[in-house]
Design brief:
- The protein is α/β, with parallel strands linked by helices.
- The chain has 14 helices and 11 strands.
- The strands form 4 sheets. Strands 2-5-10-1-11 form a 5-stranded parallel sheet. It has a two-stranded antiparallel sheet with strand order 3-4. The chain has a two-stranded antiparallel sheet with strand order 6-9.
Length: 340
């Protein structure tokens, strides 16, 4: 019987490997996925997202929201308010945004991942002033006039929030992911833009008398016309803000949002997620691990993707002893709160 291990820890080279085993579907960076034909998905938002669209589509098609989640989404749609979704890691906060976009045919989700250095400017637009200056200097060095350089619109790219606020017949879906990772200022900085649904691009306002209409690049790779240096939505975007609950948000932001607390996934949600990633056979073979996940101690945080990892690896190591597979599952499903 062959040893399932690739690295054996023996300190000596062995016959080596010519190819690693196939990765989990959600970690396959080489396989190009078919893209859904739904309009705004024509241009890739980023290469990683494009490669995993097939898995994500199966995931949202199998998504099983609870009634409270459906009600909160509809409230946000009716009231044109952002939806603030909180919950433990792995509860499906981000997937909810993709499920709404897929079911309503609203195109590709515009994702804005938040880190501690993220500013409002990052979400609205970026102006490459240095690049423009370099191009002007290069044209002058070639003997061409300043007008030979590309127009100012070539150096402006809208961010995910700026793209979501473009005028459109139907709203775009914007996922502002892990807002609790931001610094203290960003939630307050968002207030005016979320309330008014518009913003100005000062660099374009300054030239509006000479260039009333300027084409700029959107976050998802399209070119759009901006008039008078301002962007104002006609259909307020479906904005989903997610938070792992690592901090509290200011009251002015909370009052502008529909709030939803996601409970840990139950058996129905887990089954749908596992079937999307691993198929029906993955559900059948993983009943013991699913039961262990559901029977964890109250307050113990284990993310659903940890369960997925354990299911995939234990099912793809048939040569390993049962005790080895148990040890693997135990290692991969450690509680995230290690202080317990």
């Amino acid at each position: 019987m062959n040893d399932w291990r690739i690295y054996r820890g023996v300190g000596q080279p062995h016959e080596g490997v010519t190819r690693l085993p196939a990765p989990p579907p959600w970690r396959d960076f080489a396989r190009a996925q078919d893209r859904p034909e739904d309009g705004p998905d024509d241009g890739p938002e980023d290469p990683g997202a494009a490669r995993r669209l097939g898995v994500r589509r199966r995931l949202v098609e199998n998504y099983a929201p609870r009634p409270a989640e459906v009600d909160a989404v509809n409230a946000a749609l009716y009231l044109r308010r952002p939806l603030l979704v909180t919950g433990n890691p792995g509860t499906g906060k981000s997937t909810l945004a993709y499920a709404v976009a897929h079911e309503l045919g609203l195109g590709r989700v515009l994702r804005w991942p938040i880190v501690s250095r993220t500013t409002l400017q990052d979400g609205l637009y970026r102006y490459d002033a240095i690049g423009r200056l370099q191009d002007v200097q290069l044209e002058r060095a070639r003997g061409a006039g300043q007008d030979a350089a590309p127009g100012i619109g070539s150096y402006i790219r809208l961010g995910p929030l700026g793209t979501a606020l473009l005028p459109s017949e139907l709203p775009r879906v914007l996922l502002i992911d892990e807002l609790d990772k931001s610094d203290l200022d960003l939630p307050n900085d968002l207030l005016n833009t979320l309330e008014e649904g518009e913003f100005a691009i000062p660099e374009l306002e300054r030239v509006a008398d000479r260039e009333p209409v300027v084409e700029v690049l959107t976050h998802d790779g399209h070119r759009v016309a901006v008039r008078g240096g301002r962007i104002a939505c006609t259909a307020f975007p479906m904005i989903v803000l997610t938070s792992n609950g690592e901090r509290d948000f200011p009251a002015p932001l909370l009052r502008r949002c529909i709030q939803l607390e996601l409970e840990p996934p139950g058996e129905e949600q887990l089954t749908a997620m596992i079937e999307a990633h691993l198929g029906e056979e993955g559900v059948g073979a993983g009943r013991d691990l699913i039961a262990r996940f559901l029977d964890r101690e109250p307050g113990e945080v284990v993310a659903a993707d940890q369960l997925l990892n354990a299911l995939f690896l234990t099912q793809h190591t048939p040569q390993a002893e049962r005790l080895t597979r148990e040890r693997i599952a135990e290692m991969l499903m450690q509680p995230l709160d290690r202080s317990r």
